[in-house]
Design a protein that fits this description.
Blueprint: E1 2-5, E2 8-10, E3 16-22, E4 31-37, E5 44-50, E6 56-58, E7 66-71, E8 76-81, E9 90-97, E10 110-111, E11 115-119
Parallel strand pairs: 2-11
Antiparallel strand pairs: 1-3, 3-8, 4-5, 4-9, 5-6, 7-8, 9-10, 9-11
Length: 121
C-alpha cells in the first residue's frame, strides 16, 4: 500500500528526491514518515509529515537539508534530500501511522519496501 522510489547514486553534496506512493489507504488520517537503515546500523527516524495539516518533524541531523512534502491530489509524499553526505547513505523506507507526529517505527502501521540511496563520487 506504500511504495518508495527514487533512490540511486548521489554525489556528495548533491541532491535527490524520494517518492512514496500510497494506494488503498486514505492518507488524510495518517502521518507519513521516512526512516532509513544503513548496513550494520539500527533503523532510524528521518522525518514525518502530518498528511492532513502538513506539519513536519525531522531528526536533528537532517534539519535544513531534507524536506518532506505531500501532494494530496496524487496521494504522494516526497523526501527532498539536499547537501547529501556519506552519512545519508542507507535504505530509505516510507511508512504510515495513524498517530500524530510519531517517531518510533513501532507506531507505524503500513510500510513500503525500501529504496537504496548510495552516496559516492
Amino acid at each position: 500500500q506504500l511504495q518508495a522510489s527514487g533512490g540511486g547514486l548521489v554525489q556528495p553534496g548533491g541532491s535527490t528526491r524520494l517518492s512514496c506512493a500510497a494506494s488503498g489507504v486514505i492518507l488524510d488520517d495518517y502521518s507519513v514518515g521516512w526512516f532509513r537503515q544503513a548496513p550494520g546500523k539500527e533503523r532510524e527516524f528521518v522525518g514525518s509529515i502530518s498528511y492532513r495539516d502538513g506539519f513536519t518533524k525531522y531528526r536533528d541531523s537532517v534539519k535544513g537539508r531534507f524536506t518532506i512534502s505531500r501532494d494530496k491530489a496524487k496521494s504522494m509524499v516526497y523526501l527532498e534530500m539536499n547537501t547529501v553526505g556519506p552519512e545519508d547513505a542507507a535504505v530509505y523506507y516510507c511508512a504510515a501511522s495513524p498517530l500524530s507526529r510519531p517517531q518510533d517505527g513501532r507506531e507505524y502501521e503500513y510500510w513500503g519496501q525500501g529504496t537504496q540511496v548510495t552516496v559516492s563520487s
